[in-house]
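We close this part of the discussion by returning to an individual protein. In the encoding step, the backbone of a single protein was reduced to a row of integers, each denoting a local shape. The sequence in question and its structure tokens are set out directly beneath this paragraph.
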Amino acid sequence: MKFFEDCEIGSRLVLGSHTFTREAIVDFAQKYDPQPFHLDDEAAKRSHFGALCASGWHTAAQWMRAFIDRQKRDVAEASAGGAPVAKLGPSPGFKDLHWLKPVYVGDTITYATEVKDKQTSKSRPQWGLLFAHNTGTNQHGDLVLEFESVVFVERRTL
């Protein structure tokens, strides 16, 4: 993980990809979003989606999984090379979450994050705040998910 000072506005990071299976879509929906178009093929065909599709919450949760997995890989790589690793703090939240297109069985979504702004924390001087635009794009190049987030990142210097 980069220190706050090393994060550049405009830098974009591909987090990883995930392919949505029918089993995973139904399993997530049964647990967290049990609507017919996420659970049943025939009901989904009759819906405005036309086929079984993933919950938007499922696509967002997979973004988070990709983010954490990428962070773990980056920390392991930096640590193996003896480089110092910045701490990532909590997120004060997100806004403007949009599910732009359905995610169907077999779709592969590639997740990314782009630094849009940054500012030092006035109340916690050892931390900075990174503001990011986050996306999920399907295998056809269609944007299916986007949202804005903010996260605390450790500063190297005060």
